[in-house]
Give the backbone structure.
Amino acid sequence: MRKEIRGYNEVREAARDWEAYSSDLQGDRDVRDYRQLPLEADPPRHTKFRMALNHVFSPGALRPLSPDFEALAVRLIRELKPRGSFEVLEDLVIPYVIGCLTIIYKRPQDFAEWRSWGPDVWNAAAYRRGEDVHAAEVAHRNRDFSIKSPRDGQVLQEYLDQVFDEAEGRIAKGLEERDIWDFVAGLEIDEQRVNRKEMQGIANVLLAGGRDTVIKLLAGFVWHLIEKPSDADFILESEENFRPAIQEMARYLSPLPRMERVPREHAVGEDSERDTDKYVLLGFVSANHDPERFEHPEKIDFERERNAHIAFGFGPHSCLGQNITEIETIAFLKAVLPELSGWKFEAKPNLEWVDEPLADGSTTRYLDKFKEIRIALS
Ligand code: HEM
């Protein structure tokens, strides 16, 4: 069993200390053979890739897109109305998040392809077959390998091969940059054009980083605001209340529950030759639900004071997608809030809770996954 670092101070400290707890490792070893960038690198290499991507994630590049995000959410909601009922994830949140990514990355032609992958790119093949992947995920997390993993990297790989062949072809012809893949394929780090594995590594975080995390956050908002309409009223009171509400939902849900690190002394040699049992995990859930740091961490409190949670990480790898998350969520809420009074649960929401260990050895009930939230419209 691998060690998990738990507790607010401990996780924060370890996340900051990249020299002791390195990100120089390849994750998702079952489905890919290249590193996600800038995620799986240490400074100074990490910093160069991070700087190169800054432009994509800057508020200046993203804010002008917010009316398009809101228009998308409004359209999706309008299309649901004649149906009388809908399912929050499949019918609203997943198409919304994927639609936003097509807008940010200037790839509207990819909507159907990305939508067909479902919430998680590594489960795309299983999702297309209509399988429930959650049971296998939970079993594998508990090191129970009796259920075969549905994870598969082929769907993503075929897509990446195609788009980067096209992008490199366009660059070779001297054509103008058209979309995110032209941008990524044209990047230069240390005056050297990125190679194909690096392009794939960057594409991975661009496609995967902001997918299941934001899907969980938005589904969480719909679920919570129906359960507690006074919190919807609180957000409606002032534009300034969006931010604390988003931060608190991010803390409570901690959509990226843990990340891998390799203790420096084990960050040597090829990934394939390393003993990954020596790797450790940073437990973001345990940090964000640490009762020493947060009063009643099990409660959602939009008016929580000094909410210095670390749901978006901490230190050099802190999330590059925070602006995207915030802008997408605000646009989504602006479209959803006026509708909420007509939305009721059609059945009890199907949620997956797990007992999550905390630093002091106790456990907390953590909302692991929104499986299904059916809404009846009135
Ligand atoms: C609720 C939404 C999100 C949550 C909770 C979240 C969480 C995180 C966390 C905890 C990390 C740190 C990982 C580590 O320390 O190893 C991280 C890094 C990152 N996230 Fe997010 N994320 C979210 C949305 C997004 C979005 C929308 C994107 C982009 C489309 C994105 C892109 C990235 C990237 C590129 C990194 C790597 C940064 C680096 O290594 O320097 N994330 N995220």
Remarks:
- The first strand starts at residue 3 and ends at 5.
- The pocket of protoporphyrin IX containing FE is lined by residues 15, 23, 38-39, 50, 205-206, 209-210, 213-214, 217, 250, 255-256, 259, 284, 311-313, 317, 319-321, 324-325 (CB under 6 Å).
